[in-house]
Amino acid sequence: MTSPGETPHDNSVDDRPPELDPIFVHARREAVVILMVFFVCLTWSVGFYVVDGLQPPGAAAQSTPTVWGLPRWVFWGLLCPWLAVDVFTFWFCFYYMKNDDLDGGSSPNTEGEPGHE
Amino acid sequence: MNDLTTLSLEFFAPLGLFAQAGGGGSNSAIITFAIYIVLVMVLAGLSHRLLQSKSFMSEYFLGSRSLGVWAFALTFAATSSSGGSFIGFPSLVYTHGWVVALWIGSYMVVPIFTMGLLGKRINQVARKTGAITIPDVLRDRFDSPGFGGLATVLIVFFMTFNLIAQFKGGSNILQTLLADVPLFHAAKVFTSDTLAGVPFFGAADAGYFLCLLVFTAAVVVYTAYGGFRAVVWTDVLQGVVMVAGVLIMLPMAIYLVGGMEKATKEIARMTPPRAVSLLIETDEPLASPLVLAKNSWLVSGGEGENRRVFRLAAEARIKSGETTAQVKTDEAAKQHIPAIEITFAKHIASARPTTFTSGGKVVSVHQQVVPEEQKKKTGYDGDGQAGVYMKGPGIDKSSADGFLPLGLAISFFFMWNFSGAGQPSNMVRLMAFKDSNTLRRAIFTVAIYYTLIYFPLVVIFMCAKVLLPGWETDSDRIMPEMAKALTLAMNMPWLAGLLVAAPFAAVMSTMDSFLLMISSALVRDVYQRNINPDAPEKTIKRLTYVVTVVVGLTAMLAAVSPPQFLQDIIVFTGSGLSTSFLAPVSLALYWPRFNRQGAIAGMLSGFLTHMLLYTVGFFESGELEPLQLFGFHPFMVGALASAVVSVVVALTTSPPPEHLVRKFFYRD
After folding, report:
1. Residue B447 neighbours by CB distance under 10 Å
2. Average pLDDT per run of 10 along chain B, which is 668 residues long?
3. How many interface pairs between A and B have CB atoms less than 8 angstroms apart?
4. Could you tell me if residue B97 is left (phi over 0), alpha (psi between -120 and 50 degrees) or otherwise beta?
5. What are phi and psi of B424, to 5 degrees?
6. DSSP labels, B522-533
7. For residues B21-40, b (16+ Cβ closer than 10 Å) or e, as one string?
């Protein structure tokens, strides 16, 4: 059995010590960050809905405060995080995500480019 | 601003309450729309020329893996924004209110999630193996033709359903656009006469059938002729049209309602309409037949407190020599006509009845509400309460918990992201970008693109509740009606063509991709890889064109008798594909220990769980309503089942062959 951190020992394939594909390693690390962002957004938006935007069916009507003409729970629970995620996406794409050479290993020509360590 | 607002609202009263669907200016709209179709065909012609100079299979189905930022970003975005985004979604906003903003809210992370999670890896793996389709990738990753075959079958199964729903959406939009064009009415009469008595086609609505033909011809021709490149280029055009349409509509809608603050306050006072059945009669037998069109307004009780306003939810007819209206149903003609009763005082006061004519004479009709048989109340109808459009869960005629209870809110937040990542049509696009720099830029481009599309759509169609009341009778038509109404109000009817082209573009950009996916599954995965691996390129080419055309025509035939619940079908197929594909593909890309047995078991368990929940739900409700186990959407349950079964089966069976692990997870 081979896990990502382990080295497969199969001399019939290759004698040199195998090294994990850097694109795989980068992609996996980026995927973890993406999953974390997803869960933060889920918690924030659905949490705001529960606290300020959900009224059980049949309950007495409540007034809904507005911000810029939008219901308050929509403004803070959806519009604001939406814009924040756009800012995060900019950082992620241009300063975190690696510019890998998908036909081979990591590109040797990425120095100085955003995303290259 | 106040004066302008007053003017606008006065102008809109006739559009919303007193007129039928839209108004004049349709010739201008048709011209704009025709120009758009010509552009699409030109793009198909150009890509066909490019096709001659490249390897057919890779170019026709994957654009030679060379998509740049704009092509990749917009084809990804446009394919994801299906007819659902511009037809079903506006309909949901209009029907349920602000809560739909949360229903779609997870689109804030969809670009980074659906493109970033699998994009780099799937592109790399596809390049390593030379894969052109998703079944190709799976087959090569596990060295298993059987698994590739299973993936092909599931893709064809779900995408065919979706294709039929998209055909319906496209035809409905075209029908709305052509509603006021005399030539269309003449063609409708001709079609109706021609089809009368023809088995199968005779029962179809002539206008719908005509639009279906035109729509099919346009999409099938440019897709078959130009292949993936044509689909991508037209997606780019369609993506631009969609965002332009939304960005033009947004300020117009906000301006015409007098600002969002004012609109939202009015929405807060609105009470939902009530579903009723009407008995409609004339005083005397008619000399010639009378048609009471769907969406006609009926008013009784004068101007005082007794005034009641109804809108027909179905077309009714009074035959010559008779006095009572009947509605045609699947079983027999009925005298109880489905309608809604308006309950919001402002709309009741300003409504004017539709004028009906028969044999050139104005006919007056009167109606009474038929007491419904005592039925068990199944849904949450808002109980005539104000404020139901401002907060969740939102009214829902089929669920007592409302439209978006907490469990479903969580489900949909998961679903748009995980389901989007698990769509084979998205995965194929992730195999086609040029390099990872293209991927990085495209993710950000799509993030901005979705921000400009989805949240503004919610705002626009909340404004539609103020501007065009009463469309609960036919809410799937609210987008084209709003486009026509806005442009007419701003005295720019020519713009309606562009705005209506936006949802049409959304449907086309999804359909062409799905058409090509089904075609590639049959030609590449079934024929070339299993039946005749040595087939010459000429044969493959010919077969590809024929299969694309045949699939398109077959979907069209299936859509002649139009399926209901466009949005439901789209959700069914989208969630079905992702429950089947997400876990196996993700684990295949990120877990070296994952093996063929785990992948097959995971795919089958996701598919079967999804189908089981929908089947049980169908038998319980008689509609395409899934069983929501513990309040969660079947996607959640199916995807979880698929992931758990994938991992458990992989761990309890033998590890994958070492050469596969080395090939896909270690440096060459």
Report:
1. 28
2. 33 37 51 78 85 74 77 80 74 92 94 94 92 90 91 90 81 73 79 78 80 86 83 80 87 94 92 90 87 88 83 88 80 79 89 84 85 63 81 82 87 88 87 90 94 94 93 84 85 74 73 83 84 85 88 87 70 88 95 95 95 88 77 86 96 94 89
3. 217
4. left
5. -55, -35
6. IIIIIIIIII-T
7. bbbebbebbbebbeebeeeb
**HEC profile of B458-476:** HHHHHHHHHHCCCHHHHHH
- State both tokens at B412: 């949909």
Distance CA B188, CA B533 (A): 48
Distance (Å, whole) CA B165 – CA B176? 17
Residues of A in contact with B441 (CB under 8 A): 93
The fourth-level CATH superfamily of domain B2-50+57-262+391-665 is Sodium/glucose cotransporter (1.20.1730.10)
The mean pLDDT value for A89-102 works out to: 92
Q: Which ipTM did the prediction report?
A: 0.82
Chain B residues touching A73 at Cβ < 8 A: 391
Measure the CA–CA gap between B506 and B166, rounded to whole angstroms. Answer: 10
Q: Coil, strand or helix: which one is A103?
A: coil
Q: Which residues of A are less than 8 Å from B263 in CB distance? A: 69
**For the purposes of burial, counting CB atoms within 10 Å of the CB of A39, is it exposed (0-12), middle (13-18) or buried (19 or more)?**
exposed
- Residue range A4-59, pLDDT digits in tens: 444 444 545 556 668 899 999 999 999 999 999 999 999 999 999 999 988 877 66
B298 - beta bridge partners?
B310
The whole-model pTM stands at 0.83
Q: Return all residues near B294 (Cβ < 8 A) that are at least 6 apart.
A: B312, B313, B314, B315, B473, B474
Q: Residues near A83 by Cβ (< 8 Å), separated by ≥ 6?
A: B451
- Say which of B112, B383, B459 has its CB closest to residue A58: B383
B535 interface with A at CB cutoff 8 Å: no
Contact in structure between B155 and B134 (CB atoms under 8 Å): yes
- Whole-number Å distance between alpha carbons of B553 and B479: 27
Element (H, E) at B450: helix B436-467
Within chain B, all domains assigned CATH 1.20.1730.10 are found at 2-50+57-262+391-665
Q: What is the DSSP letter of B393?
A: S
Q: Residue B457: what pLDDT? A: 93
Spell out the domain ranges in chain A. Answer: 29-51+66-117
